[in-house]
Design brief:
The chain has 236 residues and is α/β, with parallel strands linked by helices. The protein folds into 2 domains: 137 residues, TPP-binding domain (Rossmann fold, 3-Layer(aba) Sandwich); 71 residues, SIR2/SIRT2 'Small Domain' (2-Layer Sandwich). Helix content is 35%, strand content 18%. It has a 6-stranded parallel β-sheet, with helices on both faces. It is globular, with a radius of gyration of 18 Å. It binds 2'-O-acetyl adenosine-5-diphosphoribose (OAD) and zinc ion.
C-alpha cells in the first residue's frame, strides 16, 4: 500500500528513540557524556593517545547494545517504510537497532559500532562478535590497528551520506524528528533544510529543543507513544 499523501517522508532519529530499549542517551540525566568526557573517548586525539582506553569504552558499549532489542518505535518506523514508496530514515544512532527492526532505507550519519575501519588502509568491515576476540582489533587486510567506524568529535561526516540526507530533506513533504537534542551539527541542520523547503516538521521529544521553535507540531512525550499516536492520526 502507498500512502501518497505522506510521500516523501523523511525521518531523523537520535538517541531518544533507543532509550526505551535500554541504550543510554548522550545528554541529560544518565547520559554517556554526563559520566564520561567525550574528548577522552570519542575524538581522534583520544584514540591516538590511548587506543586501549577508547577500545575499552567501545567494547563496553558493544556489549551493552548487544543486550538491547529494538522497541515498538523502531518496529513502527520499519512498517511505515513498507507502506510508503518515498521514504528515508536518517539516524544519528550507531546502535544498529533500526536495521535490527528491519528498516532498510537507513542512512547512518554517525557510523556504526558494528562496523570497523582500518587506521592505515581504506578497509571497512562488519564485526558483530561480542566479546571481540582481540582487545585491540586489527585490519584483516593489512594488519594495522582497527578503530570503530564512528564519526568522532572533530571529524567530518561521510560526504556522500550527508549529501543524501540533505537531498532527502530538501525534497521531503513531511519530516519527522524523533528523540534528538538537535544540538549536534551538521545533523541538526537537516530538519531546518526541510522546513525551509516547505516540509511539515513534526518533532517527537519529551523536552523542548532548539528545533521546537521551527516545528509545525511538537508531540511532547516518548517516541513509542507519540509515534504510534501520530501514525494513528494520519494513516487511513
Ligand atoms: P542526545 O542524548 O543529545 O539527546 C537525546 C534526546 O532524546 C533528548 O532531547 C531527550 O529529550 C530525548 N529523549 C529521551 N528519552 C526519550 C524517549 N523515550 N522518546 C523520545 N525522546 C527521548 O542524543 P542525540 O541528539 O542523538 O554522536 O545526540 C547526537 C549525537 O551526539 C550522537 O549521535 C552522538 C552524540 O555525541 C556520535 O556518536 C558521533
Ligand atoms: Zn588495513
Amino acid at each position: 500500500m502507498t500512502n501518497s499523501a505522506l510521500d516523501p517522508l523523511v525521518v531523523l532519529t537520535g538517541a531518544g528513540i533507543s532509550a526505551a530499549s535500554g541504550v543510554p542517551t548522550y545528554r541529560g540525566v544518565g547520559g554517556f557524556w554526563q559520566n564520561y568526557r567525550a574528548q577522552d573517548l570519542a575524538t581522534p586525539e583520544a584514540f591516538q593517545h590511548d587506543p586501549a582506553l577508547v577500545w575499552r569504552f567501545y567494547h563496553w558499549r558493544r556489549n551493552l547494545v548487544h543486550q538491547c532489542k529494538p522497541n515498538q518505535a523502531h518496529y513502527l518506523l520499519a512498517s511505515i517504510e513498507d507502506k510508503l514508496e518515498d521514504f528515508v530514515l536518517i539516524t544519528q544512532n550507531v546502535d544498529g537497532l533500526h536495521q535490527a527492526a528491519d528498516s532498510r532505507r537507513v542512512i547512518e550519519l554517525h557510523g556504526s559500532i558494528w562496523r570497523l575501519k582500518c587506521t592505515k588502509c581504506e578497509n571497512r568491515w562488519m564485526d558483530l562478535t561480542v566479546p571481540m576476540k582481540e582487545d585491540l582489533p586489527t585490519c584483516p587486510k593489512c594488519g594495522a590497528l582497527a578503530r570503530p567506524d564512528i564519526i568522532w568529535f572533530g571529524e567530518p561526516l561521510n560526504a556522500e551520506d550527508l549529501e543524501r540526507a540533505y537531498f532527502a530533506a530538501g525534497r521531503s513533504r513531511f519530516m519527522l524528528v524523533i528523540g534528538t537534542s538537535s544540538v549536534v551539527q551538521p545533523a541538526a541542520q537537516i530538519p531546518i533544510i526541510a522546513h525551509e523547503a516547505g516540509a511539515r516538521l513534526i518533532e517527537i521529544n519529551p523536552e523542548i529543543t532548539p528545533l521546537t521553535a521551527f516545528a509545525d507540531v511538537h508531540l511532547r512525550g516518548s517516541a513509542i507513544s507519540q509515534l504510534a499516536l501520530w501514525w494513528e492520526s494520519i494513516s487511513p
